[in-house]
Design brief:
422 residues; eight-stranded mixed beta sheet; two-stranded antiparallel sheet; 16 helices; 12 strands
Length: 422
């Protein structure tokens, strides 16, 4: 998203009586273009060295040269709830115009689950917006939440949405912005066994409860006829740090196993009945890759990157489904109606014959009342980009793009961000 017009074109000169009554020189603006995302369509508005009346937004009388707009505003009117949306869009333009683009460094920390897509986003966004640098520490959801709460980073990242009590303890009102959905697979290293080992929820829970301790256990053999499973011990691998990946995984185990729900429970950290710990998705992946006899849960992209073996998991409908973009999207889409009431949802063990059962959304934590207005505006602009072009990069890294309904919820949430804590 560039701050310049098309090569060889001068910015359009929309008609009006000035930006909130001020001339470009008074407002301190230079030539720039703002790209707003409205229901998946980008709307290019030229501001600077021209005078634009905000009150004319959306009215047929406001008709700048169409070559600088991918769609004219009147064409979008039928797709918007005009009366509810006009003030939000006007306010967005007014705020963006009030803060000219300046070099900003934004710091974040948290989940390892989405790190592959986040690192891609931050790199690509910086290429087209060289004045904005986003630094991200992939330290786990628990550490990211702690750093966000302490105010040492500008945003946190977590696969485990804040509980009501956690949200109430935050020093500032906090928004949850889901970014993508992803799948967790059961990676294993069993000598002589390749990809495709089938597992059901009760067997997975039995392994992590220490009830199933050998790869030749009849409950595993029964699900995998024709597979020669060795009579060797199973070594369980889990996360050693506070982890949103663990939150999703223990949520799944609690859904499929009453014993797990009652004895161990759900959390970013739990008292694991058995096993060894690895730090981050990369730590668990490394232990499984290098240790025969192991099994562990990791995000799909890490499994593919490390060439780990994994197989289909039996879902609620009784079908064995492999983790994929399509099967994760099935899980994400099923949650859409619930997210209208509360965006903090679990999508494990979801309905649908083609739904992958160990999946979850990952979230960014963003302050509604940030202290640094310019930095906050740079972050909000990035998040609008992430809801548009960024979503198109998700599938290439094995994440499921957000359902359109969830993107709309994010756009409404971002409009609530207030500058300067006011």
């Amino acid at each position: 998203m560039s701050g310049r017009g098309r090569e060889g074109e001068a910015p359009a000169e929309p008609r009006g009586n000035g930006l909130a009554g001020a001339s470009p020189s008074q407002s301190g603006l230079t030539n720039c273009e703002l790209l707003l995302w409205i229901k998946g369509r980008d709307l290019r508005v030229s501001i600077g060295n021209c005078q634009t009346s905000l009150t004319e937004l959306g009215r047929p009388s406001w008709n700048p040269r169409p070559r600088t707009h991918r769609r004219r505003l009147p064409d979008l009117a039928s797709e918007l709830n005009y009366m509810n949306s006009r003030m939000t869009i006007c306010a967005t333009i007014m705020v963006l115009a009030a803060f000219p683009v300046a070099a900003q460094t934004i710091n974040g920390a948290g989940a390892t689950f989405p790190y592959p897509i986040y690192s891609k986003w931050f790199y690509e966004y910086h290429k087209s917006n060289p004045g904005v640098t986003i630094n991200y520490q992939s330290v786990g959801s628990g550490a990211g939440i702690a750093q966000y709460k302490a105010g040492t980073v500008d945003f946190g990242a977590t696969d485990a949405p804040l509980s009501d009590s956690e949200q109430a303890s935050m020093p500032q009102p906090t928004l949850h912005i889901p970014t993508v959905a992803g799948a967790e697979i059961m990676a294993y290293n069993v000598p002589g066994v390749g990809r495709g080992l089938k597992l059901s929820g009760d067997v997975i829970a039995g392994i992590y409860l220490g009830r199933i301790t050998n790869w030749s256990d009849p409950r595993i053999v029964k699900q995998n006829p024709g597979v020669r499973l060795p009579a060797s011990n199973i070594t369980v691998v889990h996360r050693s740090d506070g982890s949103g990946t663990s939150y999703i995984y223990t949520n799944y185990l609690a859904a499929v196993s009453p014993e797990w729900r009652d004895k161990v429970g759900i959390g970013k950290t739990v008292n694991w009945p058995i096993g060894i710990g690895g730090k981050g998705n990369e730590g668990v992946a490394g232990l499984v890759k290098n240790s025969p006899g192991t099994i562990g849960y990791v995000e799909l992209a890490y499994a593919v990157q490390n060439k780990l073996h994994y197989g289909p998991i039996r879902n609620r409908s009784g079908n064995y489904v492999e983790a994929s973009i399509a099967s994760t999207t099935e899980a994400a889409n099923a949650a859409g109606p619930r997210m209208q009431k509360d965006i903090r949802v679990s999508i494990v063990d979801g309905p649908g014959k083609n739904t992958y059962p160990i999946a979850g959304f990952t979230y960014l934590l963003v302050s509604k009342t940030p202290r640094n207005a310019a930095k906050s505006m740079a972050l909000v602009k990035f998040l609008h980009w992430a809801m548009g072009p960024g979503q198109q990069m998700a599938e290439g890294l094995l994440y499921a793009p957000l359902p359109r309904s969830v993107v709309s919820l994010n756009e409404k949430a971002l409009a609530q961000v207030k500058l300067g804590g006011k």
